[in-house]
Amino acid sequence: MVTKVVDLRSDTVTKPTDAMRAAMAKADVDDDVLGADPTAQRFEAEMAAITGKEAALFVPSGTMANLISVLAHCDVRGSEVILGDASHIHVYENGGIATVGGVHPRTVPNNPDGTMDVDSIVAAIRNPDGALLYPTTRLICLENTHANCGGKCLSAEYTDKVGEIAKAHGLKLHIDGARIFNASVALGVPVHRLVKAADSVSVCLSKGLGAPVGSVIVGSRAFIDKAKILRKTLGGGMRQVGVLCAAAYVAVRDNVGKLADDHRKAKTLAEGLKRIKQFTVDSDSVETNMVFFDIVDPCISPHKLCQVLEQRNVLAMPASSKSVRFVIHYQISDSDVQYALTCVEKAVEELLKGVTKLEHLTNGTIKSSYGH
Fold it and tell me: Residues where N6-(pyridoxal phosphate)lysine occurs (predicted)?
């Protein structure tokens, strides 16, 4: 008998629905590297329309989407990109922009709401007169929603302001929009409006939207032409990719409407965690599908808490040495949320009593990266 597992590690853990599997089985496909896959073409056109851009390109992962985008804008080695010090590109993507592209990251502190101070962005732009000594600034990157800042949403007005700065200094603006649909639903603003100021956007399909694989990059036709070459260079050119695009199309069609419910459940989860005195939770700051909480009792560590939860079939990941992150997705029910809260309360009791025998568990909660 299969035991129910409540998997709160990330919104990347969803399984393909029956509708996705059926679409994959029936997909009309051809060789996408040769530009001939009809399902990929239709899906890319749909994503370009949704985001208000000229063209789109399907790629295997969000990390590759961001890397391609940065390399396309910073096509001269020694270029510099301005980005948040807690951004996914800077922290969790293997330093790829530097190791692969020779692009230098210049970080600006992220505020708790995921923004960077506009004045700090301006101050970080290199003066062209210093080209003998300094890298050349060519790009600014934003992240919406901002994962390390608790899934916070960047407003269209803030993004417009950064876009104006970029344009005034002859720079490009890229948005890591891995969860841009979450931001759109939470803010009540269409995706195309949130990314209007951006020259390029990456959109992850396998997070809250629930597709099994993939991301898309959107931008101008000229930008996508460059991106297509870089995708091939990086090994991301696939053949009958329409099989994956078919599932992604179903994900966008069926699951955007479920994101508001994810956000509601995350708020419920945060309110429940707030009642546990060994934790501190700012439930008012929960804007989308992520809940972060700090553990204030020295007898409990995130590592141990996640181990005990796993013994009860609740999966989670430490977010730091003092905090844990839970992520809601559409395959988490209201009853799953209540079960998770009950398990957290019991796990805290056990850890405080010191009666729990901790074993080495193998599902990945201990080894996992925090960057998903």
Answer: 207
